[in-house]
């Protein structure tokens, strides 16, 4: 590639158009594929998880066979990529732990770190980082842990490997005098737990050069060397803490490519031709390149950079903007020589030495609000900026540093017209051409920033996802109202207000049932001051989850920030139902109070939380109270109170039970439950089965008393069929609510299908004699007909 050519950047426009189509693809096609892979399951959906990818890179202009390793990879429907690509799903292992697909990239794709997500019939995976690399991939061989057994490699190449605990990996290179060698380990930039050390050893094992935690690489290693004589040399790779395992993977790149840390300037206006030069440890001989920036503002743009006669490419990232861009004019080391800056605008500068201080001069009007947002590590720069706002005389007004995982933001509300200065220096007193920075100056309103703590939501059909949303208040103390863009109409939100005295809320988003199974949507959480209809909306970032997932991959975090991937899977299976005891809800006259039980059957044994019980439809004047039985969250007592002389005919009530399991809320409804006003005594008889001639059968008698007092209940048989005998008199003690009796049938029992009994029960309630009748219907088992005698054959 000739670096002096002006790129029309058709590759960028084409790749971005392809990308816009591909990640969301045709929604109809994606939905159809998703549905084809869908399988009903009695268990909650199991979205795919990706633990590793082989190889760890894809090459522009080629088709690469990728093997995904993880869990629940069967029934894959689509591979989402952050870069332009076309994917053909091939085969999946029967156990769902591996999947093969063929990924084709346009040749215009740039080298860098990208991301993939895998969709199946059960949902979508979290991000998994992968390289786009123009170096050919080879696999690590086993047992290369000694110099004597080093794996032979020839440049250009990239080796995909994992560290082994307490061991080093060795790679043998045969070199000639005068040849250059460039090697880098890409590990933490790919989300690996490996903290690599890279050493180049001479034929005798002596160290020629070593690398650990190179600036701008997030803790990765890289080196360059020109050989002085022919010989067999060795590259050694190990984890700095001697750790290892599958999570300590790395990609060792070997060739002759620029070790570019940053581009300078670090961005350019969208839709314009921009010129970039490159800074790094090994960039000598590179000419500036000229490219046409994409039209979309705020996009991170990957750039490949290569030597005209080199092997492979280095990579950097730049940003697009809509404001005027300036490049610092040295010297600008004091107020008098400050670089004049327009507001709004973008500053591109460098802390070129440890003592370098850069000054920028601007004028403002009273009442203006301006923010100064620095970009360094998110674009690969090692700079750690310290920003200071000064008045016309150089007095300090405000300051901020970007120490930590994110870049710094300085905001100020200017109370008067005047000239002011921004002073920029490296907090750690570092300096070089690598220590580039980019500061975006934009107007802002006193307000807040928002962050979502998820970037992936696998949601059952008509189900719910939850994310914590946190706010960083910037002079605004009122309540913040949240909404969600990208999911269409009909969504339901709970917890969508951050109270004025709080900085966080748990936002619950429930999807409507018109979003069908298989749809893949992109959502953004936005917020505004509650009650201010015309207020500008603030977009929530997803930095908390990205930082947790990829703590040392700032380039990847910058390009993936913001959207939440929402995949709609199968309906969440039922996890509980309810029943009543008794099945008829009784209300006792004379007492004006009665109870019944709601019993919760937990279909899924993991569901152990309490449920909420509500009742509807009681006659006027009846009040209810629900109480959970102590130490038993599967039994609830509903107490009814009302007038002692209640009249209610043909009343039906509803019992509603609501439970939440794995964030999914379900409501079970028992409708048309009979409600009966009865005397303050009910006797229920339930046989254990049918009875037959000469046989016996048990009957359970359930006594339901109402009122505070408990008295004996006397039960007599009032009517009984011939052929069945029963105890003439039965007494239930005051503390006895249930008892069993035994019925006996003699040989004279009629062969009818049913036998009917009537019992009379008597007790006292409020010193009054109460008598009720109850009926028992007992099925009679028919007597089998005798088989005719067989005739004996004639002798």
Structure in a nutshell:
With about 800 residues, the chain is mainly beta. It contains four helices and 62 strands.
Give the key terms:
Immunoglobulin-like; Jelly Rolls; 7 domains; five-stranded mixed sheet; about 5% helix
Q: Kindly identify the CATH topology of the largest domain.
A: Immunoglobulin-like
- What is the average per-residue confidence, as pLDDT, rounded to a whole number? 90
Instruction: Calculate the terminal CA-CA distance, rounded to whole Å.
Output: 113 Å
- Tell me the number of strands: 62
* CATH evolutionary superfamily of the largest domain: Immunoglobulins
Query: Which geometry do the CA atoms define?
Result: elongated
Unreliable spans = 1-41
So how many helices? 4
Main CATH class of the largest domain: Mainly Beta
Estimate the helix proportion, in percent. under 10%
Architecture per CATH nomenclature, i.e. the level-2 architecture of the largest domain: Sandwich
Query: Could you say how many structural domains there are in total?
Result: 7
Strand content: over 45%
Question: Care to describe what's here?
Answer:
The structure is a single chain. With 795 residues, the chain is mostly beta strands. It folds into seven domains: 6-132, Immunoglobulins (Immunoglobulin-like, Sandwich); 137-256, Jelly Rolls, CATH 2.60.120.380; 260-320, no CATH class; 325-444, Jelly Rolls; 448-569, Immunoglobulins (Immunoglobulin-like, Sandwich); 576-678, Immunoglobulins (Immunoglobulin-like), CATH 2.60.40; 681-779, Immunoglobulin-like (Sandwich), CATH 2.60.40. It is 5% helix and 50% strand. The protein contains four helices and 62 strands. Strands 37, 38, 39, 40, 41, 42, 43, 44, 45 and 46 form a ten-stranded mixed beta sheet that branches. A hairpin with a 5-residue loop joins strand 32 (385-390) and strand 33. The longest helix has 15 residues, at 10-24. The protein starts with 5 loop residues before the first strand and ends in a 16-residue tail after the last strand.
